[in-house]
Amino acid sequence: MEKANRNDIVLLFDYFNIGSQDLLASFQNANYQVRAIVINDDGFLPDSVENVFEHYLGDFKGMKNGAGKPLYFNQLQVPEFWQISGNNTSGSVHDKSKERARIFYAEPKNKRFIKVVDWLDEEGKVRCSDHYNKYGYCYARTIFNKKSKKVSKSYFYPEGKEIIVENFVTGDIVLNLENQTRIFKGRTEFVRFFFLSNGLEKCRIFFNSLSVPFFVSNSLPVQAGGRQDILFWQEKTKDEIPGNMLLIFDGKANRCEKIIVQNHPSYERLLQLNAPETAMDELGYIYSFKKKNMGRPSALICTNTENVEKLKELLEELPEVKFHVAALTEMSAKLLSHEKYENVIMYPNIKMSTLENLFWECDFYLDINHEGEIVSATRKAFIYNLLIFAFKETSHGMAYTAVENTFSSQDYKKLVNRIKSLLKDEKMRMNGICSQQSFALTAAPEDYKF
Fold first, then answer.
1. Alpha-carbon distance 424 to 429, whole Å?
2. Angle at the Cα of 148 (from 87 to 100), degrees rounded to 5?
3. How far is CA 368 from the centre of its chain?
4. Residue 132: in which H helix or E strand, if any?
5. pLDDT tens digits for the chain (450 residues)?
6. Taking the model in full, what pTM does it have?
7. Which residues pair with 285 in a beta bridge?
8. Comparing C-alpha atoms, which of 298, 263, 303, 295 is closest to residue 280?
């Protein structure tokens, strides 16, 4: 397949979140060359992804006096005798017993690279945030008022000169470019200027948000071929069709011709709300799966709590399965008490390299821990083709867990029997993988024809 022209399609995202990443990867896996642009700044974007604000800040990568790599948490410059401390989730700065700053890491957090530093006043309130990029530079600073409300955000050249100021009170954005000062009445005007000055208004715009990306699409001149932009709807559909979506359905959007819904529950909900089928399609993502499922009797559980639903019962009912229970922190005595069973291995304070190996070595994933999820485990298990099982009371990744693999915790024996059957029957197991991928709307390159 020949690659499409890079200038044919622009992917416009509010944030470079999981949905944005999956959509970009899908187009790349379909052999398109697209231009991916993100509106909200993020100093750790891949080199192939542009940010509207950072576009005007110059070349941090090429600066000779910079580190050329992310800033490690203890490399933050602080006054003499102040102490920097940190763990695998965050860091802090203290002046004796007084907390002066909080350090937030870029993903993956265990690498402890600085992304944002919140500086605190004498009352412990945030007064400003310094934003760092993957080259170790502070490229932006957000100012807060006494009530910890955002007032403004300034963006800097590598040498520290201010180039952009966004006023969160008025919504205005000031751009000092080539000895000219330009004032924009909000982000839509600012992004529209970026598109026009870079000749992108002639491209088809594919976007995944009904806020600024939709407004930008709607504000640009219509292409010669008529409406050709597309909304990729990745969010949960609630009790009403959003107003901006209705504009698209009613043919009143300036450039957007149709909607592609990227998760099945939202598609079904839109149909229930009488959305016109002719104006929307259902399409998932082209995933880059890491490995094949080999049907090995090894199950992985990732948890940040001692409360792992029916763990004792599962260990007893599935003696033929080796369970690997991983946590990023210390484990409680309650959780470690399960070590009396021969078919379980506990991994407190697990290293990321060890956890990565477990995703390679295991073929089953049990989403059965209460409270939060670590390392986006169910999604990661899906990408590694682990068969995912969950209790309704604990599920964190319903989008990746096939209906037939989701059980009430009271029916845990049904989960046990399902795993036993899959271990015995290779054809059933392969059908299970196909069902899991189908449930998650896994697409093929030929599905991406735009």
1. 9
2. 40
3. 22
4. strand 126-132
5. 344 444 489 999 999 999 999 999 999 999 999 999 999 999 999 999 999 999 999 989 877 666 689 999 999 999 999 999 998 789 999 999 999 999 999 988 878 999 999 999 999 999 999 999 999 999 999 999 999 999 999 999 999 999 999 999 999 999 999 889 999 999 999 999 999 999 999 999 999 999 999 999 999 999 877 899 999 999 999 999 999 999 999 999 999 999 999 988 899 999 999 999 999 999 999 999 999 999 999 999 999 999 999 999 999 999 999 999 999 989 999 999 999 999 999 999 999 899 999 999 999 999 999 999 998 999 999 999 999 999 999 999 888 999 999 999 999 999 999 999 999 999 999 999 999 999 999 999 999 988
6. 0.87
7. 442
8. 263
Instruction: Quickly tell me which residue has 């009613």 as its tokens.
Output: 250
Contact yes or no for 168/151 (Cβ under 8 A): yes
8 Å CB contact between 133 and 145: no
Mark 318-351 as b/e (b = at least 16 C-beta within 10 Å): beebbbbbbbbeebeeebeebeeeebbebbeebe
Using an 8 Å Cβ cutoff, are 119 and 82 in contact? no
Backbone angles phi, psi at 381, to 5 degrees: -65, -40
DSSP state of 282: E
Partnered with residue 208 across adjacent β-strands are none
Identify the H or E element spanning 194: helix 187-197
User: Cβ neighbours of residue 162 under 8 Å, at least 6 residues apart?
Assistant: 154, 155, 156, 176
Residue 447: count of CB within 10 angstroms of its CB = 15
Structure tokens belonging to residue 136: 């170790």
Instruction: Assess contact for 441 and 263: CB atoms under 8 A.
Output: yes
Residues 6 or more apart whose Cβ sits within 8 Å of residue 40: 14, 15, 51
Residues 98, 166 contacting (CB under 8 angstroms) = no
Residue with tokens 């989701």: 406
Say which residues have a Cβ less than 8 Å from residue 282's Cβ, sequence separation at least 6: 260, 261, 262, 264, 267, 441
For residue 332, give the DSSP letter: -
Interatomic CA distance for residues 43 and 135, integer angstroms: 8
